[in-house]
Design a protein that fits this description.
Blueprint lengths: L1 H35 L22 H13 L13 H7 L4 H8 L7 E4 L9 H12 L6 E6 L7 H23 L8 E5 L25 H4 L2 E7 L4
Parallel strand pairs: 2-3
Antiparallel strand pairs: 1-4, 2-4
Helix pairs in contact: 5-6
């Protein structure tokens, strides 16, 4: 009986200690839930950045991309980024077809923001497209805005108009997302009607005015916008 009493006391102490430990663990878990909203044991794994390049980042694509980036001052620095037709043709030493080919692989990645004739004002569909494409960054470094104008009007007028269209897209992104280093992320190119005009086949791309009449004149009253997922 004496030994039985001792065994009972030991068993009771062990049970008490186990209960105390369980209570302590539960209190700790409860505190964790109060602080973070989830228990420590069910916290999600930390996301790992995906540095893999898109399939279109071929050596040729990156070679042309690098030429445009360096010739148009898109690689960084304090100066405002930008490139007009003469810059692209002479400094980048690239033809109309090669320039358009640079962006052809981005057909599914980007979109064509369309404007009214003679206007740089964004409509609601254009704003929506810009915002949706901007948040689809996926770790990319450069966001390109390549603005054009149709053949209607003089080269000087259309060069200025395409510059205004590029700026309208740039400023909308800035106003909407308040990015502190936007100049280091966005490359602006305004091509007027002198360089790399788009053909009617680009009406089949992701355009902001879906279901509306589209021809060569209309598709060039536009700004092509996209992140580029290549590491240089």
């Amino acid at each position: 009986m004496k030994y039985a009493g001792i065994i009972g006391i030991v068993a009771g102490c062990t049970l008490l200690a186990g209960s105390a430990f369980a209570v302590h663990a539960e209190v700790k878990s409860s505190a964790e839930r109060l602080k973070t909203g989830i228990a420590e044991s069910v916290k999600p794994a930390v996301a790992i950045a995906n540095d893999a390049e898109a399939p279109y980042c071929t050596p040729k694509f990156k070679e042309v991309l690098a030429r445009v980036i360096h010739a148009c001052g898109l690689e960084g620095g304090a100066a405002r980024r930008g490139c007009q037709p003469a810059d692209v043709k002479t400094l980048a030493s690239i033809s109309d077809d090669d320039f358009n080919a640079l962006f052809t692989p981005l057909k599914e990645r980007g979109g064509v923001v369309m404007y009214d004739d003679g206007s740089e004002k964004l409509d609601d569909d254009g704003k929506k497209m810009l915002e949706e494409l901007w948040v689809e960054r996926k770790g990319a470094r450069y966001f390109f805005i390549v603005a054009r104008a149709s053949k209607t009007g003089t080269p000087d007028f259309n060069r200025s108009l395409s510059h205004k269209r590029a700026n309208s897209a740039f400023f909308h992104i800035g106003d909407k997302f308040k990015e502190p280093d936007l100049d280091k992320q966005v490359g602006l190119l305004w091509l007027g009607n002198e360089f790399a005009q788009l053909g009617k086949e680009y009406c089949e791309w992701n355009v902001s005015r879906k279901g509306k009449p589209c021809a060569a004149e209309a598709i060039n009253r536009s700004a092509f916008v996209s992140w580029v997922d290549c590491q240089l």
